[in-house]
Amino acid sequence: MTQTLHIIGGGMAGAEAAWQAANMGVPVVIHEMRPAVGTFAHRTGSLAEMVCSNSFRSDDDEQNAVGLLHWEMRAANGLIMQTADQHALPAGGALAVDRDPFAETVTARLRAHPLVRVEPGEIAELPDSGHWIIATGPLTSGALADAIAAETGREALAFFDAIAPIVHFDSVDLSKAWFQSRYDKGETEEQRTAYLNCPMDRDTYEAFIDALLAAHKAEFKPGETAGYFDGCLPIEVMAERGRETLRHGPMKPVGLTNPHQPDVKAHAIVQLRRDNALGTLYNIVGFQTKMKYGAQTEVLRMIPGLENARFARLGGIHRNTFLNSPTLLDGEMRLRSRPHVRFAGQITGVEGYVESAAMGLLAGRLAASEILGRPVSAPPPETATGALVTHITGGAEAKTFQPMNVNFGLFPPVDLKGGRRNRPARYKAYTDRAKAAWQDWLGHFTVGKAAE
C-alpha cells in the first residue's frame, strides 16, 4: 500500500503540494489549523486564502520571470494557476484574482479529490517518522516555530509584512479619479482600464508625506525587530527613506494621463486595483502600512478621490517567519537533520504567492516520487522553479539570506551580448531555454489523471 504524505498547512504551497502528490497517486492528508486556530491576517478557514494583495503579478511568460513561473506551473497541471485563471480579474498585463471565490474553489477541488483528506487541528511538534511537508507559511504557529528552532539549533529569521487597505468602489470620487492601466497596457479595453488612478499635485504630495511621517504607527513587542522585506515595505517606511521614494515607487506618475486635466502632469499618482469580480472593492496598490487604524483613515483620505473613502479592510502588520534555508535544507528541500521532512512555501525564504505555490508544486512532486520509489531530482536552475530552489538551498549567502522573488538574476546567464538595448532578446532567450528544460524535467514523471 502506498504510504501517506502529510502536509502541514493549507496555504498556497500546501494546497499545490497536495494536488500534485495526489495526482501522482499518493494519498495525502492536509493538516490545517484554521479556523480553529486563527492568525492575525486570515479571515476564513479556506485553503489557499489570499491575505495580502490579490495579484499574481506579471503574466508575461516571455519577458518576465514571474510570468515564466506561471507558465511552468500551468504546464505542470498546477491547481493554483488553474484556479487563478478561472477567477482572473482585469489587471493590465498582470494576473489578479477574485480572492474569495479563488480560495473556495481551491478548497472544493481538494476536498473532492479521492486521495486528499483535510484534517483540522494544529501540529505543534516535528514528526519523528513518515513523509511530511511543512508548508505553514510566514505565519507558522508559535508552538511549531519553537519546535523547528529547537531542532535546528538556530533561531528562525523574521521580518515584518504589511497588508494594504481595501476601499469600497462606490466611495471613490470619479470626478477626480480615472480608469487607466499604466501605458494603456493590456489586450482588451477592460485590461487597459484595470486601475483607478488618483492624482496629486506637488503641494498635496508634500502634505501627504508630512502626515504619513507624523502618523501614529503600530508598536513592536519587546524583542521584536523591524527587518522588513524590501518587496513589501510599509509606505511610511518608504517615506522615511526619503521624501521622493514613494514618487519613484508605488506613486510614480509615469504612463498615465488624467482625462479630467489632460494638460496637467501629476506630481504623483496613487493606483487602486480591482479586488473582486463584482468590482465593488479596490485595493490600494503598494500601500502596505503599519499606521494605526485611526491614522490610516485620516491620512488615506488626503488622497484626491478618496476624501470620502469607506474601507472594507484597513492595513495591518504581522510577523513573518522563514528559515535560513541555505544552511538547513538540502537541494530537494529536505531538512538535513530530518530528511523525512520537507519544507515548502514562504517559510523557505521565497516571497510571493506564485513563488510559494511553485515551491509547493516542487515539494509535492519530489515527495510523491520518493514515496513511489521513483525519486526525481530538482529541476535544473535554467528553469524558474529550479532557479528559485537552487537559490534558497545553496545559491544564496547564508549570512545575508533574505526572502526573494523570482527574477532573471537567479538564472545561469545566457550568452547574448548587447547590453540594455538587447534586453528583450535576452529575456526571451532565458524563457525559451527555461521552457525546454522544464518540459524535459516534467517528462521524468508518471502523473495520474487529475480529479475533475
TrEMBL record:
<dbReference type="GO" id="GO:0002098">
    <property type="term" value="P:tRNA wobble uridine modification"/>
</dbReference>
<dbReference type="GO" id="GO:0050660">
    <property type="term" value="F:flavin adenine dinucleotide binding"/>
</dbReference>
<keyword id="KW-0521">NADP</keyword>
<protein>
    <recommendedName>
        <fullName>Methylenetetrahydrofolate--tRNA-(uracil-5-)-methyltransferase TrmFO</fullName>
        <ecNumber>2.1.1.74</ecNumber>
    </recommendedName>
</protein>
<comment type="similarity">
    <text>Belongs to the MnmG family. TrmFO subfamily.</text>
</comment>
<keyword id="KW-0819">tRNA processing</keyword>
<keyword id="KW-0489">Methyltransferase</keyword>
<dbReference type="GO" id="GO:0030488">
    <property type="term" value="P:tRNA methylation"/>
</dbReference>
<dbReference type="GO" id="GO:0005829">
    <property type="term" value="C:cytosol"/>
</dbReference>
<feature type="domain" description="MnmG N-terminal">
    <location>
        <begin position="5"/>
        <end position="374"/>
    </location>
</feature>
<keyword id="KW-0963">Cytoplasm</keyword>
<keyword id="KW-0274">FAD</keyword>
<feature type="binding site">
    <location>
        <begin position="9"/>
        <end position="14"/>
    </location>
    <ligand>
        <name>FAD</name>
    </ligand>
</feature>
<keyword id="KW-0520">NAD</keyword>
<dbReference type="InterPro" id="IPR004417">
    <property type="entry name" value="TrmFO"/>
</dbReference>
<keyword id="KW-0285">Flavoprotein</keyword>
<dbReference type="GO" id="GO:0047151">
    <property type="term" value="F:tRNA (uracil(54)-C5)-methyltransferase activity, 5,10-methylenetetrahydrofolate-dependent"/>
</dbReference>
<dbReference type="InterPro" id="IPR002218">
    <property type="entry name" value="MnmG-rel"/>
</dbReference>
<dbReference type="InterPro" id="IPR036188">
    <property type="entry name" value="FAD/NAD-bd_sf"/>
</dbReference>
<keyword id="KW-0808">Transferase</keyword>
<dbReference type="InterPro" id="IPR040131">
    <property type="entry name" value="MnmG_N"/>
</dbReference>
<dbReference type="Pfam" id="PF01134">
    <property type="entry name" value="GIDA"/>
</dbReference>
<comment type="function">
    <text>Catalyzes the folate-dependent formation of 5-methyl-uridine at position 54 (M-5-U54) in all tRNAs.</text>
</comment>
